[in-house]
From TrEMBL:
It catalyses: GMP + ATP = GDP + ADP. It comes from Halotia branconii CENA392. The keyword Cytoplasm applies. The gene is gmk. Keywords: ATP-binding, Cytoplasm, Kinase, Nucleotide-binding, Transferase. Essential for recycling GMP and indirectly, cGMP. ATP binds at residues 27-34. GO terms for cellular component: cytosol. Its EC number is 2.7.4.8. Belongs to the guanylate kinase family. It is found in: Cytoplasm. This is Guanylate kinase. It comes from the Bacteria. InterPro entries: GK/Ca_channel_bsu, Guanylate_kin-like_dom, Guanylate_kinase, Guanylate_kinase_CS, P-loop_NTPase. The keyword Nucleotide-binding applies.
Amino acid sequence: MMQALPIQSCANTQEDQSPGRLIVLTGPSGVGKGTLMRSLLQRHPQLYYSVSVTTRSPRPGEIEGKNYYFISRSKFEQLIAKGEFLEWAEFAGNYYGTLRETVLNQVRSGKLVVLEIELEGARQIRTFFPHVLSIFILPPDFDELEKRIRGRGQDSEEAIARRLCRAKEEVKAAGEFDIKVVNDNFETALNAIETALFNSNS
């Protein structure tokens, strides 16, 4: 179960005066947000993707520094103590977080910075970045979501049940977000994200 954890104030960042923009993409596990993000970055190389830090082990095909920065639990806790994270939380026994200065420097430089993070992290960021563009990705239905999670072949029956239970709770939070996109048809969903992202920055 994810545990939301406190972060230090970003009062000195003056995000609302920055020329760039922060965009947060979230949604339940298995909804396809990672695949949407990869396609978005391929189409729009001017976007800056902030790579998260995690204490979990890499999955097959994942690359250090591209998918995540994989570090030890003790190292992660050292970074917490130093206030290095913009947001962080614990999910399924592992820490996940976004490095503060990396994101702030890119926003200040005028970049559109995109984060793909968990729900609790998205909530934390919105507290301190009131002008963040928040996008929630929804599954067409829970049968399809279960099919996608099973199709990854990475989870036990117990883990799948936990993910689906959590997904039902996460979907209830969709109304908190600026934009909701149903990932039924991939191209349609991707176009909806592009329209929302670039129109919001015009």
